[in-house]
Amino acid sequence: MQPIDLLIEPRWLVPVEPHGVVLENHAVAIDGDRIVAVLQVAEARAHYAPRERVELAEHALIPGLINAHTHNPMTLMRGLADDLPLMRWLQEHIWPVEARFMGSEFVRDGVELGVAEMLRGGTTCCNENYFFPDVQAATYRQLGFRAMVGLPIIEFPTAWAQTRDEYFEKGLAVHDEFKGEALLGTSLAPHAPYTVADASFERIRILSDQLDLPVHLHLHETAQEVEDSKREHGARPFARMQALGLVNDHLIAVHMTQLTDAEIAACAEAGVSVVHCAESNLKLASGFCPTEKLRRAGVNLALGTDGAASNNDLDMVGEMRSAALLAKAVANDASALDAASALRAATLNGAKALGWNERIGSIEPGKQADLTAIRLDDIETQPLYHVISQLVYAAGRHQVSDVWIAGQRKLRDRVLVDLDVGELRGKTQRWRERIVT
Amino acid sequence: MQPIDLLIEPRWLVPVEPHGVVLENHAVAIDGDRIVAVLQVAEARAHYAPRERVELAEHALIPGLINAHTHNPMTLMRGLADDLPLMRWLQEHIWPVEARFMGSEFVRDGVELGVAEMLRGGTTCCNENYFFPDVQAATYRQLGFRAMVGLPIIEFPTAWAQTRDEYFEKGLAVHDEFKGEALLGTSLAPHAPYTVADASFERIRILSDQLDLPVHLHLHETAQEVEDSKREHGARPFARMQALGLVNDHLIAVHMTQLTDAEIAACAEAGVSVVHCAESNLKLASGFCPTEKLRRAGVNLALGTDGAASNNDLDMVGEMRSAALLAKAVANDASALDAASALRAATLNGAKALGWNERIGSIEPGKQADLTAIRLDDIETQPLYHVISQLVYAAGRHQVSDVWIAGQRKLRDRVLVDLDVGELRGKTQRWRERIVT
How far apart are CA A74 and CA A112, in angstroms? Predict the structure, then answer.
């Protein structure tokens, strides 16, 4: 009998790879931070002596969800201002609050709140994009949460950095400081084509090549952005990024609501990942990302919530559902972005966008044990004909019962293992007091 | 001190009328099935001697949600077939199952499952549209759930009725049988312009006038429906309904994804209610209802889930959110269908569609005590800047804690008062076994 740390025996196992498969009577054997085997329960019990055995009699076990685009510190601004045009929302509400409060404490507390919400919703990894990446990285490390932390670059001064050089210097220092961390990674995060100059993009391109870092960029979020770029640069933003050498397999292009067929083909050709933020795009009236066209063209399509200030949650279960529903209406085809493809977008494709698809995103031997269990015995998910359909179209994030990251239990029967919800609520309410007064 | 049955003291009270208001330190006084007063807590305690007092320290109290279009027996087919074009979905999956199983037992059990899900999601009233309205009505009555039951009319035989005359006769018998019931009402429910002949619509129009009954009709669900009608009848379905005299304030027009500005103006002029089923329209790729245009034109806009076979839930909290998000992208305006308007659509406007706006849909003295309490202390709804925004954009239906219908508690701290969830789950699972074999 081989000693291992953990054996999980779910009612249904959805490994994501192979695609669309639902296994019954199967177990996941975990040792340390890794999955060592996916095998029949009888075989597992005969072969392994686990330190802990977890039976999940009414649950589906899926790979931890990957939120491929978020600004978690902004969770502290959830619902601060809604139902407003983008520019009024930014200029009259979000930016003034950021100008007054953004700093280490704000970022740490916001990330903590975000992690609590993500874990309770089955998310085990996020692609973070905000200021103070040092504080973010330290907070994710402390909480044992997997994250790719963006190194922000923008052409105007903030509390994080004053000048272009300072953005690069401070960002690279963060990269160096956290580079050995098991759960962390860094990306280069130029804000958007309309807030970053060519000179910065050129440096980003070189750094991305040298350090093998993803480039995490808001791109083609609105029609206005495209029009402004044509006027200012004589080119659509995508064409400008092509000219700057940034359209390659390091690019994580977020939003992409405005795309020609040629741009879609170029994304597929170059290995660009597109992150679709269905709910944010709807809420800010940004436009409709042609997700099914992208998928059919072979583009790696991942999903993200965007920040909770424009969503207003970090719910990847809901985001899968919204993306799957919206894709059908946008493609005028009820078979577009089927349930298994939506689940894949929210897991393995997110991993691929980060360059981490050898490490996470599916339940396969050798991968990290990032796992999410979802109860399906609530009457809201009954009767149950197809497990993956139920996960995508009927389940709610509150049905997530247990979560592991790198083999460590982070949520146990809906209770956060490392975070005190009462304390967190108190902290959050104090931020609210400060922000509204 | 005036004796009353119940005094509810929520942290926040959202009466819906007046529009957009959130009251603090207010209570709702209830006697029998009615709201007798909405007043300050101190005043309420000084004036009333309630048999029961309920403090809801972390909750918002709202009018019970009204699902203005659903086919609850179809809840037994939740997730049976997804990601399919409409006609394959109907012809290969839904209709064959209905042909084999639809009958009294199926309808009773489906309604029971639907009621359990609706109550757990804060819904207190539905506008039902399916076969066997006698069984539906008896089941809603037995469970103390408020419902308007459609009397189905369709030009082909089903287990419910064989001929046009039989549909009318059986429907009218149901109307007569249940007409005195406090929580029930009936509507005339011709299926759709493409499945009902002019001769039937003419009888429906006369009956609607004589009996003062709403007409609950799927209308302009898809572009195909409009094209087919032009070919077959030489007119768009809406124009055909106008010619038949059905475009009036009895009409509950469901879906309406294809509308000209003239049709919108005609709806406003005639007092038509439009029921928007955002998630079903997305999932079946039916098209986009121009909800903001309708609202601005003064059309009464209500919300519905449609059946759980094409949604796949009966979640009106989620439907409010989906409708509010989608409206913005469709109108290309981030201020479209703001949170307060979405909540109104899911409550008072639903009541108005049914002709019940003097009875339900807002928390006002004299109205029925149909009430829903939603906890807002979960970290997913923190920090809390604006209560109505949080209800619409961040809260999930699992945060619904307590529900009353006509002053009777139906959900108590998430436990169903009149339904055994275990028994229900067993029944549901037996239906699944029968349907898949």
Answer: 11
pLDDT 10s digits, A378-392: 999 999 999 999 999
CA distances from B388 to A93, B328, B341, B352 (A): 18, 17, 10, 21
pLDDT interval class at B172 (50, 70, 90): very high
Q: What is the DSSP letter of B157?
A: -
Q: Give the residue from A14, A11, A43 showing the smallest Cα distance to A29.
A: A43
Structure tokens at A258: 């405005």
A436 burial type by CB count under 10 A (0-12 exposed, 13-18 middle, 19+ buried):
exposed
Question: Under an 8 A CB cutoff, do B393 and A283 touch?
Answer: yes
Say whether the peptide bond before residue A383 is cis (omega within 30 degrees of 0): yes
Question: In B368-392, which positions are buried (b, 16+ CB within 10 angstroms) versus exposed (e)?
Answer: bbbbbbbbbbbbbbbbbbbbbbbbb
> Which of B75, B76, B82 to mutate to probe the A interface, most A CBs <10 Å?
B82
Paired tokens of B9:
């003291």
Whether A222 contacts A287, CB under 8 Å: yes
* Cβ–Cβ < 8 Å for A200, A153: yes
This complex has an ipTM of 0.97
Amino acid at position B22, single letter: V
Cα distance between residue B401 and residue B408, in whole Å: 14
| Rg of chain B (C-alpha set) | 21
Q: What amino acid occupies position A373?
A: A
Task: Determine the number of helices (DSSP H) and then strands (DSSP E) in chain B.
Answer: 17, 17
User: Which domains does chain A possess?
Assistant: 2-63+369-416 (2.30.40.10), 65-354 (3.20.20.140)
Average pLDDT over residues A334-352: 98
Contact B181, B144 (CB under 8 A): no
Task: Answer positive or negative: Cα dihedral of A12, A17, A21, A26.
Answer: negative
Instruction: Annotate B48-115 with DSSP letters as a single string.
Output: EEEEEEEEEEEEEEEEPEEEEEE-GGGGGGTTSS-S--HHHIIIIIIHHHHHHH-SHHHHHHHHHHHH
Q: Cα–Cα distance between A403 and B313 in angstroms, integer?
A: 25
The shortest CB-CB distance from A79 to any of B76, B394, B396 is to B394
CA dist A234 → A228, A229, A230, B156, B314 (Å):
9, 7, 4, 61, 49
Out of A285, A312, A386, the one facing B334 most closely (by C-beta) is A285
Q: Look at residue A350 and give its three-state secondary structure.
A: helix
The pairing of strands A34-40 and A48-63 is: unpaired
Cβ–Cβ under 8 Å, residues A422 and B421: no
Distance from CA of A381 to the nearest CA of B (A): 8
State how far the Cα of A114 lies from the Cα of A339, in Å rounded to an integer. Answer: 26
Q: For an interface test with B, which of A101, A255, A282 has the most B Cβ atoms less than 10 Å from its Cβ?
A: A282
Which tens digits make up the pLDDT trace of B128-137? 999 999 999 9
Question: Which of B280, B281, B385, B436 to substitute to test the interface with A, most A CBs within 10 Å?
Answer: B385
CA–CA gap between residue A75 and residue A94 (Å, rounded): 12
3-class secondary-structure state, position B372: strand
For B79, the closest of A116, A386, A435 (CB atoms) is: A386
| Model pLDDT, residue A80 | 95
Chain A environment of B339 (Cβ under 8 Å)? 82-83
Residue tagged 């009251």 (tokens)? B23
Give the whole-angstrom CA distance, residue B219 versus residue B266: 14
Among candidates B83, B313, B394 on the partner chain, residue whose Cβ is nearest the Cβ of A312: B394
DSSP letters of A31-78? ETTEEEEEEEHHHHHHHEEEEEEEEEEEEEEEEPEEEEEE-GGGGGGT
Report the pLDDT value the prediction gives residue A5, as an integer from 0 to 100. Answer: 98
